[in-house]
Amino acid sequence: MQEPIIEISDLSFAYPQQQKKALSHINLKVAAGEWLAVIGHNGSGKSTLAKLIDGLLTPQSGTIRVAGTELTPTTLWDIRKNIGMVFQNPDNQFVGANVEEDVAFGLENQGVPRNEMLKRVKKALVSVGMLNFAQHEPARLSGGQKQRVALAGVIALQPRIIIMDEATSMLDPEGRRDIIQLLKSLNKEKGFTVISITHDIEEASLAQRVVVIDDGTLVQNDKPAKVFQRGTALIESGLDIPFSEKLKNELKSYRIAVPQEYLTEKGMVDWLCQFISKK
Amino acid sequence: MLSKVNFGFFLKGVRPLIWLILFTVLLQIFFARGGTVYWQWGPLSLTSLGIINGSYVFCRFVLIIFMSTLLTLTTAPLEISDALESLMGPLKKFKVPVYEISLMLSIALRFVPTLMDETEKIMNAQRSRGVNFGEGNIVKQIKAVVPLLIPLFVSSFNRAEDLATAMEARGYRGGEGRTKYRIHFWKRNDTLACILFGLTMIVLLYLRNW
Amino acid sequence: MSIHFEKVNYIYQADTPFRHQALKNLTVSIPTGSYTAIIGHTGSGKSTLLQHLNGLLKPSSGSVTVADKTITAVTKNKELGELRKHVGIVFQFPEAQLFEETVLKDIAFAPKNFGKTPAEAEQIAREMALLVGLPEEVLQNSPFELSGGQMRRVAIAGILAMKPDVLVLDEPTAGLDPKGRHEIMQMFAQLHSQKQLTIVLVTHQMDDVANYADHAIVLEKGEVIASTSPQEVFKDPQWLLKHHLALPKATRFAYELQQTGKVVFEKMPLTEKELAASLVDLLGKGGN
């Protein structure tokens, strides 16, 4: 692996007044430019991990390094400049009175001069396709549009890492597809490192690597294909399995010999075609 | 007129308060004493001073309503909050968190539609559970408000928490060192309005002393 | 409990510049005892239609008939109470409606409002808590201390406690994780089959429509563009594409497979089970 942009070692965290650890002994490296999915059921600790990386929570033990710098109270604000976060509820992160002002919020915080701000806000709105909505108030936007604005706010700050903390879970399927499409291009074309915290298996399948968190511990860290092979074990830890795996399970119950390894839907179609031809 | 506001809007602003104004004016007219007495019946009297006071009160009311109508029609709430911030500017020297107050105000304004929406949703949910809002005696009505207010409080607190986290993640650490995206320009009309206002003041002061 | 909409129009803010017609001359029936899915985009009129089901909204013109009650623009609000008892609505993110000190009291809220004595209401609340799978030990806790999934169950129990004949569900699994989603949907399916509850499900999840519904109503811009079986709705991919609607995963996969020219499905499968079964069938024939 090339120089990791995020390096987490032996990280543990418990919320105040709670006995049980929300996360225990997490070790994880994220490479620059990678797309990493973190999956786990609600309450597994996956969102806690995101908040720890951004310094929004302070760990009891362990270290986090972002772009070579260790996260401490003194380096916190500089580290946050490397990270942009989009949260779950589209309404509760919209600070500005309208779209452009919301995108500008982070820039204002960093004390960016106004002329520069105007340029960056415009550019960011163009890249999420929301320029025509610059003057719109949040009440006139759909959930998906609000999340795109949130992404524009992140892009305007030019961070290296984008963390999506279940940012698609409250959207309708169209809004979700939209945001995922956008993320793909940000990752592939603009080179952002993407960490997507999710329990949407389709979203996770787009990642280069998937980390499974269950009850505060990291149980798997591998390529999506390997993770999806666990099939029923995933279901047991409260997650879903991709459609092709579900179909394989059904076929298996008819005593059809299906391949062991994970197949994408396309792969499954190909395999079935071959299988039928052979008959 | 400078503001390009239809005169009808001003009258509309007066209408809901017309009874209050008339009542106060009548009180002034019939109960004030002094000057020439025109008519008297028991405690009621019609005097010259009463009539003058009455017309003053009337003018004041109408002016206040006109002014506030003008302000709300020409100026967005956010601009008012901006204006407050700049007016309170000097207070920064006394460690008053002017910037924070203005941000708070602007966020509060931004969340008004969101909360209205939320209120509507919760009302619908509780109506479906058999609550009748705005029906029955006063005790019943007050009772009906509880299932609305508690969820509203809870959701507002949750929102506030989420918002605080999101703001922190976006690098918000207080007013210091922040730049501003939204700025206001001084236009020719502003100068004109100031001059007109100043002239009126002088004329009024002159009339008063005269 | 049959539900019938007859030429219903609904207009928001009728006499203002913001006038918006959400339902247009809508005529549709929801069969008694059915599991009806209502599909459509955001803004298609789904939530307006839903609010007509228990009289939260009254039609601007036309009429809505639920069992023997007919609601028109002039129906008095007082007459709607009876209707609300029969039609329970679980709104989107229903945990937002919780407010009582304890879980039990919150579930008992609706039955009390509809005239049950506190003792009866508590009895019902206990039954419902059991029905939705809440553990005994949380019943005396504050609902706000529970996890998101459990809060959702409390809210649902609070509606079931009205013992409605029609249960309306607006995106009941939104925000839950896959396991929670599956459990809740299974629970509704059971209620439907065991208690003959009529269920109206508003959803974006085509897989839920395929797996659970026996009737589907498709809305677009305030009008009904289809009211038929899920099988019929999903049989024409071109039509769905035109109306920006998705296919269930199994159906989409079946079409992809069909595109290769190797297989032809006589009847399009809607679920994985159906897909696997018809594949096995095809393979069997191929082998002969």
Automatic annotation (TrEMBL), chain A:
The UniProt record lists the keyword Transcription regulation: no
SMART domains with a match to the protein in the record: AAA
A Pfam family this chain is assigned to: ABC_tran
Chain segments annotated as transmembrane: none
GO cellular component, as recorded: ATP-binding cassette (ABC) transporter complex
Intracellular or extracellular location(s): Cell membrane
An example molecular function term from Gene Ontology annotations: ATPase-coupled transmembrane transporter activity
InterPro entries documented for this protein: AAA+_ATPase (IPR003593), ABC_transporter-like_ATP-bd (IPR003439), ABC_transporter-like_CS (IPR017871), ABC_transpr_CbiO/EcfA_su (IPR015856), ECF_ABC_transporter_ATP-bd (IPR050095), EcfA_1 (IPR030947), P-loop_NTPase (IPR027417)
Membrane topology: Peripheral membrane protein
CDD domains: ABC_cobalt_CbiO_domain1
Record-linked SUPFAM superfamilies: P-loop containing nucleoside triphosphate hydrolases
Keywords (A to Z) from UniProt: ATP-binding, Cell membrane, Membrane, Nucleotide-binding, Translocase, Transport
UniProt xrefs under PROSITE patterns: ABC_TRANSPORTER_1, ABC_TRANSPORTER_2
Domain of life: Bacteria
Domain ABC transporter, first and last residues per copy: 6-240
Family according to the record: Belongs to the ABC transporter superfamily.
Protein name: Cobalt transporter ATP-binding subunit
Organism lineage string: Bacteria, Bacillati, Bacillota, Bacilli, Lactobacillales
From TrEMBL, chain B:
CDD domains: EcfT (cd16914)
Taxonomy of the source species: Bacteria, Bacillati, Bacillota, Bacilli, Lactobacillales
Record's keyword annotation contains Transmembrane helix: yes
Entry's transmembrane regions: 17-39, 51-76, 190-207
Organism of this sequence: Liquorilactobacillus capillatus DSM 19910
Record carries keyword Membrane: yes
PANTHER family linked to this entry: PROTEIN ABCI12, CHLOROPLASTIC
UniProt main location, coarse: membrane
The protein's name in its UniProt record: Cobalt transport permease
TrEMBL record, chain C:
Class of enzymatic activity (EC top level): translocase
Signal sequence extent: none
Subcellular location per the Swiss-Prot or TrEMBL entry: Cell membrane
Protein purpose: ATP-binding (A) component of a common energy-coupling factor (ECF) ABC-transporter complex.
EC number: 7.-.-.-
Domain ABC transporter residue range list: 3-246
Keywords for this protein: ATP-binding, Cell membrane, Membrane, Nucleotide-binding, Translocase, Transport
An annotated Gene Ontology molecular function: ATP binding
InterPro entries xrefs: AAA+_ATPase, ABC_transporter-like_ATP-bd, ABC_transporter-like_CS, ABC_transpr_CbiO/EcfA_su, ECF_ABC_transporter_ATP-bd, EcfA2, P-loop_NTPase
Subunit structure: Forms a stable energy-coupling factor (ECF) transporter complex composed of 2 membrane-embedded substrate-binding proteins (S component), 2 ATP-binding proteins (A component) and 2 transmembrane proteins (T component).
Cellular component terms (Gene Ontology): ATP-binding cassette (ABC) transporter complex
Recorded topology in the membrane: Peripheral membrane protein
Family: Belongs to the ABC transporter superfamily. Energy-coupling factor EcfA family.
NCBIfam families: ECF_ATPase_2, PRK13634.1
Pfam families: ABC_tran
Name under which the protein is recorded: Energy-coupling factor transporter ATP-binding protein EcfA2
